[in-house]
Amino acid sequence: MGRLLPEAFLAKMKRMLGDDYPAFYASYDDPRWYGLRVNTLKCSNSEFLDLTDFRLEPIPWARTGYYYREEDRPGKHPHYHAGLYYIQEPSAMAPVELLDVRPGERVLDLCAAPGGKTTQIAAKLAGQGLLVMNDIHPDRVKALVKNIELCGVRNAVVLNEQPDKLQRPFGAFFDKILIDAPCSGEGMFRKEEDMAKAWQPDWVTKYAAMQRELLRQAAVMLRPGGRMVYSTCTFSPEENEAMIAEFIEAHPQFSVRQIEAVNGLSSGRSEWVDLAADLAANEAAERVRSGNDEREREHRLEGSRLRRPGNGRAGMPASGMEKASAAIKAQAIVPPPSESGSVEISDGAKRAVEGTARLWPHLLRGEGHFVAVLEHAATPANDESGDAGKHSELRSETGQAKTEVIQTGQETRRQRGSETALRPSVKQRSQPAVDMQPLYRFMEELAPTVQVGRLVLYGEHAYAAPDGLPDLHGIRVIRPGWYLGSIRKQRFEPSQALAMGLHADDAVRTVRLAARDDDALRYLKGETLDMAGERVVRSDESVPAKGYCLVCVDGYPVGWGKWLDGMLKNEYPAGWRWI
Ligand SMILES: C[S@@+](CC[C@H](N)C(=O)[O-])C[C@H]1O[C@@H](n2cnc3c(N)ncnc32)[C@H](O)[C@@H]1O
């Protein structure tokens, strides 16, 4: 595969790695490593190991991570549909391990989609505390929502917002923040050959500009004493060591916490900060040179077009206008030189990056990652946030179970369909317009021990909002909490997310299927099942067999069914089915 890699990339890696380069290059001919992470919101490591037939080996840097063999195909297994694990590239599991999330904390995942690391954070929170997930890309947010539902995450809010807009509600709010930054993706080349083909040397500069902004924006939202992890899946020092050195230089209230170089992890290298400056300068010179060439080429092209009669508007040919506008757009994300790489970096900041970590594909069994752990000083020294501490009292703002209902006004046009945007524009804490009784009745009858806490209604959709959330007025909220279902015409329809957030023992009426039985597969394919009433498991005899049942595979919920007269009607959503 090495020969498919861009030459400019290889030349850069050679300069960076020196004697290590041959081993790095040779790693492209090694097989890929496949990983899954046990979802401890559903089951413990040992419960999963007892249940599964996959041949697994522990991933040394991730407590719940395992290598699997490609032929075991865990993406095609009923246990995947039960959310018992998440398929995740092994080195991508390191950043969240280093974020050191504890149950009860407030955590922000700023670039969360499609959800690998965020579901790992959710598992570490163990259902306690608050997880705010954000991503700027609307389509990727849809995948994120599906993944958190599959994993049974209950205490998360999903946003689709520009990070700088989050600073108003969330100034100095979070205990932990993850910035799994968009990057030039050089660590993905072995996994996705198309990435290697598409890669351009100037991606590094463009992504570095975004990363610089994301770090700056995130820093404002971390509480004094909090911890932030910055990670990428790329190798370029401009996006890694140099980015962190520059951040530390500009934010004296932060320090780099040393990551131990164990389990195959290597330390970041201070000399790569200077190398990055050199590479950035070369890249900028190259850009100017190719820009000049391009302008000259266009100039000649336009000249020849303009000489032809009837071509172009107002003397400018259409293609020239399009190219000009594309060039302007491209420039918009390249920062001016004073903001990129030309900041004077002190020796102290350079030395600090030796505390960061590299996961190299030639030194461990993973595709590659960079991780930096950044800690905010415990006192708000040199604090940038005008809102520091403003929301700390919100931690205890808890509504009584099933009593405090926040309704927002009418459903917006964009809201229809489960993954579309919700705008919390109007809030009323009095007299809900939608009668909540059908929801209360359903929960009391089917899952009487489950406390859903503070309810939020968007139109007819009901959510259980996590505690401690500040006012999100003006923020694009995709999910204000655990989606419970909808109330239409005095009837409650439970959501798939509700089923996935429950445990089998929560429900008084269940149908228990085994992964190896045909019925499990038929259910996951959306088929109606013939089923004698005795197969409906009821918590006691007073519970009728008729009605909604929580369908479980090997004891773990996969969705809803409705039992009536010897049949289990399938309520498994079309978009989730086994194909
Ligand atoms: C490396 S991916 C994140 C992967 C994710 N953490 C996971 O583990 O599944 C980077 C993400 O950043 C998002 N992104 C890019 N620019 C952003 C911005 N300015 N603010 C928030 N998210 C952004 C992209 O849409 C992309 O989903």
TrEMBL record:
Region (Disordered): 285-319, 379-430
Presence of the UniProt keyword Methyltransferase in the record: yes
A GO biological-process term: RNA methylation
Active site: 233
Keyword Transmembrane helix: no
Keywords, in A-Z order: Cytoplasm, Methyltransferase, RNA-binding, S-adenosyl-L-methionine, Transferase
Chain sites annotated for binding S-adenosyl-L-methionine: 111-117, 135, 180
Bias (Basic and acidic residues): 285-305, 387-396
Annotated GO MF terms: RNA binding; RNA methyltransferase activity
Polar residues compositional bias, start-end: 397-410
UniProt-recorded name of the protein: rRNA cytosine-C5-methyltransferase
Protein's organism: Paenibacillus piri
